[in-house]
Amino acid sequence: MTCQTGIMSIATVTLEDVERARDLLEGVARRTPLEGSRSISERVGGHVHLKCENLQRTGSFKIRGAYVRISNLTAAERANGVVAASAGNHAQGVALAASLLDSKSTVFMPERAPLPKVAATEAYGAHVRFAGHTVDEALIAARAFAAETGATFIHPFDHPDVIAGQGTVGLEILEQCPEVRTIVVSVGGGGLLAGVAAAVKAVRPDVRVVGVQAAGAAAYPPSIAAGKPVQLAGMATMADGIAVGRPGDLPFDLITRHVDEIRVVSEESLSKAMLAMLERAKLVVEPAGAAAVAAVMDDARSFDAPVVAVLSGGNIDPLLMMRMIRHGLVAAGRFLALRLRIPDRPGALAKLLSELGEADANVMDIEHLWTRPSLAFGEVEVALQLETRGIAHAETLISRLRAAGYQPEPTSF
C-alpha cells in the first residue's frame, strides 16, 4: 500500500525519503549547530556534541516533519486546511508550516496548555481551540474536526512524511560529525528517533543509536517486550514533550528494526541535565529536550565517543523553568533543606549560624518551630534552607554539624 499524497511507502521510511525531505526543507528549516560540551565530554572520556534543535525555527525539530507532511498534500487538501492537536511544539510546527504553505491551520490544545505556547501558536498563524485536559483528549477533538470539515489531520509522529522530515536531523549529524559513534535521541511517540535511526543506519550501520524516555512516560520498554505498541495506564513527568502513552505504529516498527537501545531517565536526571545546559552550555532546553543529555550524564562511560546528543526542543514556560531550575539545584546538591533542634536560650541560634558560616553554607531561609509535640522542654526546632557548592559540600556540612553535637535531618523543599 502506498501513500498517494506522501513521498514514500507507508510501510517504511528509507534514506531516499529522508533525502527528498531534506530537499523540501531547504531554506525552510535551519541547519542547527552542533556544539561541543566540554563538561560532559570530560565525563564520557571523549568528545560529546550537542545537536541544537532547541535553536530551530519554532524552538524544536517539529517544523521539519510538519512542513514535509503539509507540502506533500494536494492543492485541494491544503485549501481545506489542516488540523493538529498538541500541547506545544507540534502545534507551533504545524502553525508555521501551514502559514508558509498558504494553508489555514486549526490546533486543538488542552485547556491548561501553557500560555506562552498558546500565544506562540497563534502568532505563527493557527486558530487555537481548547479541548479536554490532556493531549489525548485534544487529539479526539482534532480528529472529529477533521471528519466534520475535511481538514487534513497532521499526526505528530505516526506518518511517513513526518518521520522523513524528522530524519533530516540524522543526515545533518552525519555531515557535521562524520566520525560520530553514538547518537542519543529523546523519544515520545517515536517520530524523531525513528527518522534519525532510519537515515543514520542506512549510511552508517556501525553508529549506535540510543533512544531516551522519561521514567514517568516510558511506553517503549513494555511495548518492545510485548512486540507491539502498548498503551500506558498513566503518565507523570515534567517532560510533557515526550509524554506519549502509546508508541506510533510506524515509529515502533522502525525503532525496533534500527535502534540499538532504549534508556529511561528520572525526573531528577532531567532537572540536572537542564541545569547543566543552562549553566555550562548557555542553552535553554525544555525537559524533553534534555532527556538525551540526562542519559549521557547518568552513565557517561557506557557511551562510545564521539557522542551526539540531540537537544530536541527549548520551548519551556518561564514559570516551569523557575521550578525546574530549583529542582535541578536540589538534585545537584546545591540547595539543602535541614531540620535540627537547638536549646531554647539566647545565643543558641547565633552559635548554629556561626557554625554554618564557618562551613561556607549560605542561609537562604530560616524558621523557628516551637509547637512540635515531639520537642522536649527547653528545645526549639530550626528549619533551614541552605545554598551549598554541591553534593560533596552538603555531605561535609552535615558531618560537621553532627560533630558539633547537632542532629540534622535532611528534608525536602
From TrEMBL:
Pathway assignment: Amino-acid degradation; L-threonine degradation via propanoate pathway; propanoate from L-threonine: step 1/4
GO molecular function: L-serine ammonia-lyase activity; pyridoxal phosphate binding; threonine deaminase activity
Pfam families per record: PALP
EC number in record: 4.3.1.19
Catalytic function, reaction form: L-threonine = 2-oxobutanoate + NH4(+)
Key words, A-Z: Allosteric enzyme, Lyase, Pyridoxal phosphate
Cofactor(s) needed by this chain: pyridoxal 5'-phosphate
Enzyme's top EC category: lyase
One BP annotation, GO: L-serine catabolic process
InterPro entries found in the cross-reference section: ACT_dom (IPR002912), ACT_ThrD-II-like (IPR044561), Ser/Thr_Dehydratase (IPR050147), Ser/Thr_deHydtase_PyrdxlP-BS (IPR000634), Thr_deHydtase_catblc (IPR005789), TrpB-like_PALP (IPR001926), TrpB-like_PALP_sf (IPR036052)
Entry annotated with the keyword Lyase: yes
CDD domains: ACT_ThrD-II-like, Thr-dehyd
Annotated ranges, domain ACT: 337-413
Highest taxon listed in the record's lineage: Bacteria
Subunit structure: In the native structure, TdcB is in a dimeric form, whereas in the TdcB-AMP complex, it exists in a tetrameric form (dimer of dimers).
Family label: Belongs to the serine/threonine dehydratase family.
Role of this protein: Catalyzes the anaerobic formation of alpha-ketobutyrate and ammonia from threonine in a two-step reaction. The first step involved a dehydration of threonine and a production of enamine intermediates (aminocrotonate), which tautomerizes to its imine form (iminobutyrate). Both intermediates are unstable and short-lived. The second step is the nonenzymatic hydrolysis of the enamine/imine intermediates to form 2-ketobutyrate and free ammonia. In the low water environment of the cell, the second step is accelerated by RidA.
PANTHER family xref list: L-THREONINE DEHYDRATASE CATABOLIC TDCB, THREONINE DEHYDRATASE, MITOCHONDRIAL-RELATED
Protein name: L-threonine dehydratase catabolic TdcB
Organism in which the protein naturally occurs: Catenulispora acidiphila (strain DSM 44928 / JCM 14897 / NBRC 102108 / NRRL B-24433 / ID139908)
